[in-house]
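From the methods appendix. Each design record in this collection lists the tokenized structure first, followed by the designed amino acid sequence. Records were kept in a plain field format so they could be parsed without special tools. The example shown here is representative of the layout used throughout.

RECORD:
FOLD TOKENS (297 positions):
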């Protein structure tokens, strides 16, 4: 009996070998859900915002492996670079915050991405001028800084200098800057009233046992090439177990379900059940810190 829970494109994968089906499961997939849609709409609003001297920004904040970067990548894929006569137009560009908390290092990363020659020893003002020139030429409308919490390893004065430089860059280019990070990133902006007003937070919360959560599980199952229906969204035992083990982080939810699907294929179960969930090798996030103690290392 064919698995009717699958989307049409995945049904064809049922004919693949076990190995190829397992590889298919590892492919990155996008699952739309309300919080993600709201954030994407907010980003779209900022991208289209008319230029002014004090452009608004946002801080997308949430736990590790809770979908922040996936949302950003989805937005960037929706605004791909394109050629216009002799110039490549780049609507959105992103970079990770440097652990050095050096704005000079960030400028270098941006110039490298854009293929602009520079030297590490160049003065920060020269790099800033190069960034401003190439941003104007390529009509870059938004800068996204991911992993903002990286800068917290630096001293507080360096953190503040980095954030002030970002604010000034936004003012000079009349361009919104979107920051992304864990809750720790709030420390980087809350030390200054102007920064906290400029970068108000957009929270990506952990998942709760709601209809939206069950809809997410159904969406995930629809992309897994298993011959039997698992019904992970409608089984209270399974859905509660997945939520508990993942601790509500969407990345962990997807990983656990993928592990269980892989186990189900390899062991000819062909569906996700409590056996595949408990024996697939997934370790609860909070338990990973104590794994050495658990195995007596």
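DESIGN:
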């Amino acid at each position: 009996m064919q698995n009717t829970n699958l989307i049409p494109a995945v049904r064809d994968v049922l004919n693949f070998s076990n190995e190829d089906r397992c590889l298919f499961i590892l492919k990155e997939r996008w699952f739309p859900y309300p919080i993600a849609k709201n954030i994407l709409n907010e980003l779209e609003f900022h991208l289209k915002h008319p230029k002014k001297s004090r452009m608004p920004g946002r801080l997308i904040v949430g736990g590790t492996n809770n979908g922040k970067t996936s949302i950003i990548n989805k937005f960037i894929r929706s605004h791909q670079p394109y050629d216009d006569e002799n110039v490549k137009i780049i609507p959105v560009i992103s970079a990770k915050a440097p652990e050095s908390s050096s704005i000079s290092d960030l400028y270098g990363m941006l110039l490298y991405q854009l293929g602009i020659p520079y030297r590490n020893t160049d003065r920060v003002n020269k790099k800033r001028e190069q960034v401003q020139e190439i941003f104007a030429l390529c009509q870059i409308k938004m800068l996204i800084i991911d992993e903002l919490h990286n800068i917290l390893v630096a001293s507080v004065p360096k953190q503040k200098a980095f954030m002030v430089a970002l604010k000034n860059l936004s003012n000079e280019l009349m361009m919104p800057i979107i920051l992304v990070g864990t809750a720790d990133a709030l420390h980087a902006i809350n030390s200054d009233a102007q920064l906290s007003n400029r970068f108000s937070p957009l929270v990506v919360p952990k998942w709760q046992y709601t209809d939206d959560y069950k809809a997410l599980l159904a969406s995930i199952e629809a992309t897994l090439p298993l011959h039997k229906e698992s019904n992970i969204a409608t089984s209270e035992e399974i859905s509660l177990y997945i939520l508990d083990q993942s601790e509500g982080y969407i990345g962990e939810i997807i990983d656990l379900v993928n592990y269980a699907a892989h186990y189900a294929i390899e062991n000819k179960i062909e569906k996700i059940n409590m056996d595949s969930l408990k024996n697939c090798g997934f370790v609860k996030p909070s338990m990973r810190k104590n794994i050495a103690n658990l195995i007596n290392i």
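APPENDIX NOTE: Residues 94 and 250 are 22 Å apart (CA to CA).
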